[in-house]
Structures are given as structure tokens and as C-alpha cells.
Amino acid sequence: MALRLVTRNLRNRISPKLCSASLLHSHATSFGFKEVREEEKSQMVGKVFSNVASNYDLMNDFMSAGLHRLWKDRLVSELSPFPGMKHLDVAGGTGDVAFRILEIVNSIRRRALQDPINDDLQEETRIYVCDINQNMLNIGKNRAIERGLGEAKSLVWVQGDAEALSFEDNSMDGYTIAFGIRNVTHIEKVLTEAYRVLKRGGRFLCLELSHVEIPVFKELYDIYSFSVIPRLGEVVAGDRESYQYLVESIRRFPPQEKFASMIADAGFQKVKYENLVGGVVAIHSGIKI
Amino acid sequence: MYRTVVNRILLSGGGRRLLRQPDLRTVISSSRFSTTTETQTIPNRPLNPPDSSSLSSSSTSFQTPPAAGDVPRHERKNPRAEYEGEQARVLQASLRHVLRLGWSEKAMIAGAKEVGISPSIVGSFPRKEAALVEFFMDDCLQRLIDRIDSGEELQNSTPSQCIYKLVRIRLEMQAPYISKWPQALSIQAHPLNVSTSFKQRAMLVDEIWHAAGDETSDLDWYVKRTVLGGIYSTTEIYMLTDSSPGSFPLPSRA
Hints:
The complex is a heterodimer.
Chain A: E1 3-4, H1 17-28, E2 30-31, E3 34-35, H2 38-52, H3 56-64, H4 67-79, E4 86-90, H5 96-111, H6 116-124, E5 126-131, H7 134-146, E6 155-159, E7 172-178, H8 187-197, E8 198-209, H9 215-237, H10 240-252, H11 256-265, E9 269-276, E10 281-287
Parallel strand pairs in A: 4-5, 4-7, 5-6, 7-8
Antiparallel strand pairs in A: 1-9, 2-3, 8-10, 9-10
Chain B: H1 2-10, H2 24-31, H3 79-95, H4 98-101, H5 105-115, H6 128-150, H7 159-174, H8 181-189, H9 191-211, H10 220-241
Helix pairs in contact in B: 2-6, 3-5, 3-6, 6-7, 6-9, 9-10
Domain COQ9 C-terminal (chain B): 194-246
Pfam families (chain B): COQ9
Region (Disordered) (chain B): 30-86
């Protein structure tokens, strides 16, 4: 897997307001390649995830050949968690990212010298896992129990909407959203909420399936997405429709540059993105100053 | 190095520097990471602050960092400078924790907490510990330049005395951190960080030679700087183990 840091200068891009507004509106009314009413999108997405919840992790492994684990590792190492941090993982239903963060924080504590300050901080670490879908949260809670984290005070499972978070302003050190922002109705609202809940110096990180531009690889990836994945969904999870939605929604999501400019519009600074596997996945990051 | 080359081209004969950048520190901090491929991709947007009377963003991209966190709310500085400014503040505060915590992320986290910024920002510094060491090196270079400019002690010295004094002044700036300096050297020697640390040392050595009045413009230019670089480095390393009377506390073996 080739990890490449790709940066472009957006100063030369011409994106008139009309164009961006229509693109965003089109995201709010798109359900994959279908057109739906804004109010309905959230419900339809909810149904998709209720259907896939039980096989979610298994299908992730199949579709990405296990690579999704590495991508999430990369996301969390970019975040550089520290003991005592308050972190919010949105659309983090089954808990993958949250478990990784907790592991790193615990290992820092184990490695640290006998430092009483750090031990107290370790107690203060809070990782909030927020998801709009209760089924996904339940799966996550069960996995936590399996790992022996059932009683951990640091993990808090919250049901909530990314567009209207129930957390206070300036309360989070970190905000991650992994493979979730594609499914929201209004991307800008999610970004604004993320900006609101982060403290000064807090980081926003988004891991998402994105657009591939490399010539031959792009064609192969398209074939894989549209032929193999829905079939895989049908065979393994018995649900072709949901996985059809998945691959279509990836294509409808704004490309890396556009999304990065949306993040900057929400007020974040030092916005950059990193393509993994040639653009199949991208990690966007920004800082609230 | 760049400044003196430019000066050499534009000046005629005189030894005075005319093209002084107003604040070398911000220049250095902005160009310091130029060896990495990471650059600001997106121009930062002005927010819609509730009480903005003027949304003027200044045209120069090099600004002095805001002092002690008091940025007047009606003034919109260049957002890029804001991030750089905050980064500089955090690193400056982290230096105070280095003796206790080493040149490490922990020191930077402590520094961030001290200035009231979430320690998450440390995660965004490129090559984290190296960022702290490089900031310190830039800071020392800036202080050395200030000493040179205030210039009293260098008035009536021969070039070699001048060099001796400047190297001594510069090394004494590191003295407070001598117990953790081996760690800093090892961070600078790391393959990822070597190019930046080499550049910083090259600039340092060039400054010292320039202050000593060097005006060669042939191969000797390189020879002189290389030799001084060698002398400086060996002195620095000797300083780590120097236990003669009146010298600095030994580095701890911890």
C-alpha cells in the first residue's frame, strides 16, 4: 500500500458560489445515485445501517481485504492521543476508532515513568462514541464487553445526530469521523458542529472513502466497486441494496479538494488531506485555532 | 545563508547588511519545514465573527506572532500566521518543561496546557520532537543575530577572536539544557530530521563567519564554513562531557 501525502494549492481553483451550493444541495438529496427528498435521506440511511449492523465489521474486512484496520490505525496515529484527552468519535458505532484510541492512551500510561500526574490524567480520559443508529451502538457496546472494557469509565456511548450534537462548545480535544460523513444529509452542518464542540487547538480528522484519479487503477477500482461489492453484500450479508448504496454514495461524495475547502469554510485551519491507496481512502484534517 | 548570498549580490563592497528581514524568527519558522512536502493547501477563510468591523487580512504572509495571546477581536490577522503564532507560543512554553520531561511530546503537551491550548495541537506538528528542537535552534540563532547586531563586544576583535566569542555565546545558550542535550542531538541526527538540522547549522555557521567579516567569494567560502561547522560540532559534543571546574552540569545518565 503506497501512502502518499498529496497537497494542492486551491488558490487557483475557481469555484463560484452557485456551483458549490448546488453540489451541497445535491448531496443532501442524493441517496447513492437515486434522488430523494431531504427529509427522507436520514431515514433511508438509518435503514441501511440497521440492516448492515450485525455484519458490518465482517463486511468491512471482506470489502477492503482487511485494509480498513490499517487505515484506522493510520487515522489514530495521526491524531496522536494523549492521556486525559476528551475525544469525540462521531458515526463510530461499532467502536473501532474508539478502541484504538483507548489502547494508545493506556499504552502511554504503561510506558510512562512513575508519574502520579499522568495516572490522574489517565482517569480523566473520555472517549465519546456518538452514533445516530442504536443498533450500531449496541454492537459496539457488546464488543467493548468482549474486550473487557464493559465497565471502563473512559468509554461513553451516546446516541446522537452529527448535525446537532448534544455536547457543549469548546469541550473536545479531538473529533474523528471515520466512514461516516458520506452518509449525513448536510455535510456543512456536521462540519460546523465539529468546529463548535472542539476546543482551541483541537483537531478534526475525517477518514473517508474518496475519489481515485490514477488512470488504470481508477477503472479497476470502478469495476471492483460496482461488480464485486454488491455481489459480496448479497452473498455474505444477504443485502445487495445496502451495498449498492454504499458504492454509489462514495461516487456522489465531493472529491478531496472540494471537501477540504468545505472544511476550511467551516473555520478550520491548516486543512490538509492525505490519500491512502491512491485515493481509495483519504484522511482530511484541520485544526481549530 | 540565503540572506548573506542575497546581500553579497546586492551590496557593493560594504560589510553591513541592508536586507534584514524584520523578524527572522517568523521567516525561519515559516520556511523551516520546507524540506517536507507538506504545505498549506487551502487558503484559510475569514470566519463570520459576530462583531467584525473590518475583515482586512494583511498582504504579507510573514507576521510577528501575536503577543501573549491578546489578539484584538476586531483585527483579522492572516489566519496562517495565527496557526504559526500559536505553534510558536506552544513551543516556547514547552521549552520550560524540557529539563524535566526531555525533548519529547510530554514536554510539548505540558507547554500547550500552559498556554491554554488543547494538547491535540501537538499532534499536528510535523515530526513532533524535532519541531521543538528546531524551534529552539531557530530561537538561538535569532538571539545570536540580535547579539551580533547590538555589537559591542565584537567591535575591536580580530576575526578569530570574533569567531571564538560568537561560538562561545551560542554554546552558552544551550547550557541550561545541557542535561537533555544529548537527546536533542539524537533527534537532530534522525534521518527524517537530518536535512533540516543540517540547514540550521549551515545558517548558524554562515552567520558567524559573516559577523567575523568574511568576504570570500570562491571555494574558500565553503571550506571556511565546513571547518567552522566541524569545530562547532566537536565543541558541542565535548561540552556534553566536560567536567572541568566552572563548566556546566553533566548530562544525567537517566
